[in-house]
Every structure is written in C-alpha cells, then in structure tokens.
Amino acid sequence: xxxxxxxxxxxxxxxxxxxxxxxxxxxxxxxxxxxxxxxxTTVKLNFTSGGTTQSFKYSDPDGxxxxxxxxxxxxxxxxxxxxxxxxxxDESKIPVVxxxxxxxxxxxxxxxxxxxxPSSLLTYTYGDKDAKNFGIGITGSAKTNSAGxxxxxxxxxxxxxxxxxxxxxxxxxPGSDDINIDFNVTVQ
Amino acid sequence: xxxxxxxxxxxxxxxxxxxxxxxxxxCDCFIQGIVEDDATKQPIVGAVVFIKxxxxxxxxxxxxxxxxxxxxxxxYTVIGRIVGYKxxxxxxxxxxxxxxxxxxxxxxxHLANIDIKAQKIDNLTQTKSILENAALDQTRGQSLGEALKxxxxxxxxxxxxxxxxxxxxxxxxxxxxIMNNGVRQEGQQWGSEHAPEIDPFIAKKITVLKGxxxxxxxxxxxxxxIMLEPDTLPDSTVMKVEINSVYFTNGxxxxxxxxxxxxxxxxxxxxxxxxxxxxGYRVQGTFKRGGDISTPNNRLAxxxxxxxxxxxxxxxxxxxxxxDIFFSHFxxxxxxxxxxxxxxxxxxxxxxxRGSPLSIYTPETFTYNIGxxxxxxxxxxxxxxxxxxxxxxxLSLTLGRQYDFRKEIDILRGDKNLTQLFKLRTYSxxxxxxxKPILKLLTGSIGVNSLxxxxxxxxxxxxxxxxxxxxxxxKNFTSGVFLIERIVRNNWEIESGFRYDIRHLNVYxxxxxxxxxxxxxxxxxxxxxxxxxxxxxxxxxxxxxxxxSAWRAATVNELFSDxxxxxxxxxxxGDENLVPEVALNLSFTANYVSKNFQAELHxxxxxxxxxxxxxxxxxxxxxxxxxxxxxxxxxxxSRFQGFDFNGIVQIAKNLSLNSKISYLKAQxxxxxxxxxxxxxxxxENTLRYDWKKTSVSITNLYVAKQNRVPTKIIFTxxxxxxxxxTEYGGDFAPPPAAYSLWSASASQQFAIxxxxxxxxxxxxxxxxxxxxxxxxxxxxxFADEIGRNIAFRAKYFF
Lengths: 188, 798
Hints:
The complex is a heterodimer of chains A (about 190) and B (about 800).
Chain A lengths: L6 H20 L15 E8 L2 E8 L10 E2 L2 E3 L4 E10 L6 E2 H7 L4 E8 L4 E5 L12 E6 L3 E11 L17 E12 L1
Parallel strand pairs in A: 4-11
Antiparallel strand pairs in A: 1-2, 1-5, 2-3, 5-6, 5-9, 7-10, 8-9, 10-11
Chain B lengths: L1 H19 L8 E9 L10 E4 L4 E4 L5 E7 L2 E8 L6 E7 L11 H5 E3 L2 E3 L9 E5 H5 L6 H5 L5 E6 L3 E6 L7 E5 L2 E2 L20 E6 L3 H4 L6 E6 L8 E11 L4 E13 L11 E14 L14 E14 L2 E15 L9 H10 L19 E17 L2 E17 L9 E20 L3 E15 L16 E17 L2 E18 L8 E18 L5 E12 L3 H5 L1 E4 L4 E4 L7 E13 L3 E27 L2 E25 L4 E14 L4 E2 L7 E10 L2 E10 L35 E13 L5 E9 L23 E9 L1
Parallel strand pairs in B: 1-7, 1-8, 12-15, 30-33
Antiparallel strand pairs in B: 1-4, 2-3, 2-5, 5-6, 9-14, 10-11, 12-13, 14-15, 16-17, 16-40, 17-18, 18-19, 19-20, 20-21, 21-22, 22-23, 23-24, 24-25, 25-26, 26-27, 27-28, 28-31, 29-30, 31-32, 32-33, 33-34, 34-35, 34-36, 36-37, 37-38, 38-39, 39-40
C-alpha cells in the first residue's frame, strides 16, 4: 500500500499543475501604455520695436540629452525700448502644441523671470498681471542701455500650490524651473 | 575587623543553611521529551538538549528521547541543538507560588514535557538573523526596511521617512534578494527610491541571511537574502484570529492588520483504511493611513501614505502530498515631500545653502491629503507550490506570477501631467529535489530556478513610442541549476555547492537622437560556488566559516538610462558596455552562549569585481530646465570589509544589556578611495528589564559621521574646467554629523483567559526629539529626519 500510487492523486496533481500553467499563459496580451508626457522643446523670444519683430529661438527637439540644443544669439540695438513676448512650444508633437496658452491659463502658478548679465545690459518690466496682481512675463518690455555684450537668463518658474496653499508670491524663490536657459546677447 | 568577619561568616552559614533547608522535592524537577524532525516526524538521535541557565544538558537516545533531572524550581530556557537543524529554544517555568492549589499532582509541578520539533535549514554555514515573536511585534506597523534596522549589519537607504530600502553590509537594491513567501520578489527594485512592495504583516518570521547566497538563490543575492515567511497553516480543526493595531503620533498614522486562519482534517474518522488529509486556510489584510510627518522643527508638506493590502492562502495535505496556494495584493500611495523635488543645480545649491525648507513646504496645518508628487504602486503575487515526499526524498515545485504596476506622478510641468509608468510581469518557477541521506552521510538538494519577465514603460513591448522614459521596455529570461551537498560528522558540518546561471536580456527602445526602435540583446552566463564549515566544539561555542561567490549582470537602468531622473533631480547616463559583477565573499562567525552572556561576532570580506555604481561626474548636464548634476553608471573593483557584533549580558536577575556594533569599510580599489554612499558605523545599546509579563527598555543608537567618502572625481577624461562640484568628490554637500538617538519602550502581556491574549506596548522613538540627518537619506540635502514618534501597539489573538 505504501508504494502504490493512487491514480486519483496523480490526476488531481496534474490538474492542479496544468491549472497553474493555464492561468499563467492566459494573461499574455500586450498592453498599450497611455502617454502623458509633454515636453517643452522650443522657447521663442520676440523683440518688437517700431513695427519690426526680431525672433530668437532656443530649440531642443529631442528633449533632454541626445543632440545639443540650438540657441540663437540675441542681437539688439542700444537705447531702444522693445516689447518682449515669449512663446513656449512642444515641437515634438504633430501638430505643434502651444504650451504658452496653458501657462496663461495657469498664470497663478507660473512666473517668467528675465535676468540680464551684467544687470546694466537691459531692463525688463512685466507687462501682464495674474489674478493676484503678480506679474506673469508672457509679455513685457525690455529696454536696452548702451552697447555691450552679456547673457540673458530666461526662466519659467512653476510655483504650484502646496497642500492647497498658493506659493506664488511675485518672487522667483518658490517652485522650480520648467525653463532655465541662457541666451548670449549683443547690444550694438 | 575580626568581629565583622565573624559576623559575615555567621550570616553566610545561615544563608548556606537556608539553602540546604529547602525541601529536597524542590530540586527534584525534571524536563523530558522527544526531539523530532518537524517535516518527517522522525525522532532525532544524538541531539543536544540543554538548559541555558544551568548549562546542563544531555543527548537524545535512539528513540529521540531525552531527560534532564535534578533541576531546582525556577524559570529556564531549554535549547535544542541538532546538527543540521535550526536551533530551538523554549522558556518554561518550574515554579509554584504559595497561592497555587496544593491538590496539584507533584508531577505537574515538577515535570515539564517539551517535545522539540526541529526544522531542517537550507543554508547551514551562512550567518542568519531572525526577527520573530516579541522582536517582530515591536516592529509592527513599520515598513520592511524600517523593521530590519534593528539587525546589526542592516541599515536603510531612505527617501524621506516613508520610503526605506534595506541595506545589508552597505549594499542594496539589486544586490539584496527578497523572498516573499518562497517567491523571488520582482518589482522595480533597481530604483533607489523604490521601497520593497511587501506588507511585513504577511510574515511571522523574517530572516536575514548575510553574505553571498548566489548558489541557492541565483543572481542578485550578493549582499544577502531577506526571507519573509508566514506561519505554517493549521492542519487540525482549529480557528485562530490575530488583530494588530498600531498608532504613530508623528504623522497621525494608523495601521490595522488582521488574520483569520483555520483548518480541518479527518483525524476524527476512525477507519483503518482511511487516507489522512488536512486542509488549512488563512485570510489576512492590512490598512495603513498616515498624514504629514514632522521633523523636530517643522511639519513637512506632502509626506503622507496610504496602503491597502490583503493576502489569501490555503493548503491541502494528503498522505505524502501537499499543495499550497498563496495570493497577495499590495497597494500603496506614498506622497513625496514637495520640498525635495528641486528642479536643477541652481535650485539645489540654494536649498542646501538655506539649510531648511522654504516656509511653503513646512505648513502649520496637518493634513492626510496626498498631493503631487507621489508614487502609486500595485503588486500582486500568486504562488502555487506542490510538494511530494517519497522514500528517496522530497520534491517540490513552486510556480509564481507577479504583476507590478508603478506610477510616479510628478508635479505638474508645463501644465500637463508628467507620469512615469512601469508595468512589470514576472513568471517564476522552481523545481527542487532534496534527497535523503546517501551513505548515511551526505544530504543535499539539487534544483533549477527560472524566471521570465516583461517590462513595459511606453507603447507596446516591442514597439515603444517614447524616447524619454527612464528605463526602456524589455524581456528578461534567467535560469540556473544548482547542487548543494553537506556532510555531518560529530561536531563538524561541511557544506559545498555550485550553480550555473544564464541570462538573456532583450531591450526595445528609441534612442534620444533617433526615431526608430532599436533592439539590444545581452547574453550572460556564470558559475558560482560555495564552501562552508561549521564546528561546534561544545555546547557553548560555535564557529562558522564560509566562502561564496555570486554574480550579477547589469540591470536595464545601469545599461540604458539616459535622462533626468526627476525624483533624484539628477541626469543619469547608463553604459551599454557594463559587464557582470562577480563577488567573492569570505565570512567567519563565532557564537558563544552561556548562562549570563551570549554573543555573536560576524566578520566579512567581500571582493566585488566590476562593481557597478552610479557615480557623480561633478559637472552639469544642460537641459531646457537648466543644469542638472550629471551621474554615470560605471564599474570598478571594490572591497567591502567589516564586522557585526551582537552581545547580550545578564547584568542582574531581570536586567539585561544588549549591545550591537556594525563597522564597514568599503573601498574603491581601482580609484584608491572610499566608495560613495556607504552607511556609517554605528553602536546601539539597549538596557532591558523583564519581569513576568512586563518588559521595559531604553535604547541608545550612536551613528558616526561617515568620514570615508570619495574625494576626487573618478572620470579622468572629464576636463577639470567643466567640473563644478569639486569639494566632495562630486557630492553636493558633506556627509552629515554624527548623531545619538534615544528611544524607550514598555510592553505588557495579558492573558484574558486560557485562549485569548492581549499584548500592548508603547514605544517612543527619538525620545529627545533630536534634530539629525542621515547620510543615506536623499532628503538630507533638504530637511531633518523625523522627530519624536510615539507608537501605541496592541495585539489581540486567540
């Protein structure tokens, strides 16, 4: 009796084993994962004065890493008042996504910051306001001073509310950068 | 002087006389029983059973029977030591108070019948630390990483206080294997901020095996193995319930877990031709909810957690066949401190300079709300195990299926959601045959384990859509065959084994600069071996020595990372050309047990060739969001050497002192400097007072400053003009100062009646609300560690 193998037991064991394999192989379909990422690939600065507009672009079409981005060198006339508007695009998608509209919609969480180096190169003033009277920076004015060279740092600070409490206070301190790029500037 | 001496002698004589005046019957107690193998139920001949407090012992006879007589009344610890088996200890009380019923038979007062059911152990010659019973109860409510911190040699790699990964001897992630009820836990464990997706409540025992255990478990067990094992299911008609309830004041966190288990068998049927069978089942569930935690000075915004887990298991035993099925569901949502998601280098440097988070990140009001950024992790595990015993040995087949779905939801960027999704399916199988002793000498096992997994992060498996995912889609197949044999002879045990593994990795990705799908494959194979010896010269001493090798092929993140790792605010580059790591671990352990003192010293020396790690380059990587610190996965020859010490000394009757020391020195041999991110040395002392069913303790943990850190950038091809983080070998800040933490705890057991029990305890962690930072916590750049935390625990069971 000890060594006799009960056929019923063998059948049960095989059934259990095959049931396992069955459940294992059934779940093999491929799954499509939804994409939710959105990139900022392009930042365009438009300087308008006396009817003419000059555009300077920062373009990084493949996102972080990969090919190095192309950055236009900004060239402006001295002692001139320009209207400065910015466009933020995602050119990796077809059709191109205009991220500036989204930023405008959520202006209470965003702040563009323009920092010239040296600070005497040009002076920026905000031309727009959000609901709390803080600047946004999608449009503003840039007044160049005497001739010189330097850099213009363009930042888009994202300052979302934390735990329901707003963090945007008009200064660049809160939040983190969605854009932080440097353009070379020549005023001549 | 002479008069005092005379007085002393009189008193002594009285004292001695008093001893002799005790009734002879009080020292006529005896302890007896049978020692048998828990699995085969066969008696074990030649086992040593001894009483720790008296250091008095005997060996079992041919029937497995032992008897220790002439014992005085008292409370004792009986220890069963059988070569080839786990040591078992039991506490018994041969006492009677004056209020006890004098009608009790003498034999009941003076006899204790203790049958020792011994369990065979897989790995004889490697050091194990076990967390069970009261020690495990003290950790209930904590995550797995947190719970294991009390084992010397084990620390944690943290991302805040809610995410903790276990670190054994300085190594973590893919070098620590976690066995979830006998199934290899497979999730996104490569990530330094990915905590193990396991509910510790499923386990009644957590074992940490320190050292390379590659031969038995396969690739990745370089630092060790953590095994979570539930209790064996009941096999008789019984129903048991256990409810655990924990409340932590810091974060107002509640954890509730319950187990119902039962069984049934046909032993009541009296029929000579019946085939005995039994069934058992268990239903378990855990619910956890916590809100924002506080450091000694601030509340940290967005540091809550929510978790819902449950598990179901059942088994069926019939004659020589056992079938087990186990299913577990783990689901957690962990908020990540908003003040840690720093954008780029300039923000990082500002944050470090500030020393503490901006006030927007340290709100006055408390909330349970989990906002962005947060992690949402789901892990399902199904295990089916069949075991058949026959006259040649035991054959078991374990099949597992796991589904791990991780979502990392980042703060809104450019208005749209930024979510990284990781879907991992793993199928595993293990077939092992443990044979009965050959030539009455050699016992061992032979087995094969295989694993197949598919990882999806974008599009479809072979057709990815995005090039900006953190790790690409892949298919991974590994398989290994092993043989382990041991010889037991008198006081010696020698164990040896070897294994052959293969790995085939198939990656589908879109490189950054391209548009087309690229398919990379990697094939690796390796031999690993183990040789160990265990020598027990007497009941007090035990010596173990072991030499083991293990290997690990590079994982997908190490090979193909290329982008900003948002959680870490770093730009990481993988290296396709990384070759597998090969480790050789030498260890020696000495164990001493006596009436008032027991100690274990574990020494280890681990050489890892081609050790793969993420090293900072010190220079910025430019992106549209600014500059990020750059890191590259690289490899080097390394050596990890150190020791763990654990000693308990009985200072007075109910008072004991437990001291644990861990020391680790990890060296980058190729670059002749310390390795980055190695835990600092520590010394922990606990003074404990035990009295009947009450226990009170106070603990001090001292963690030294980690002075062994890299000082130079190891990438010589990078021109020094590009390097901006030069001071700390590429790190952004020096390691934090040494710190000393106090904690206290008290616990009480109540027996409600013969069946029901209630244990309650109070533990105060960081008693003095000390402000400190730990080198292995990523948040050390931004905020202090958690402040005082009082835990109330209750365990009710019958």
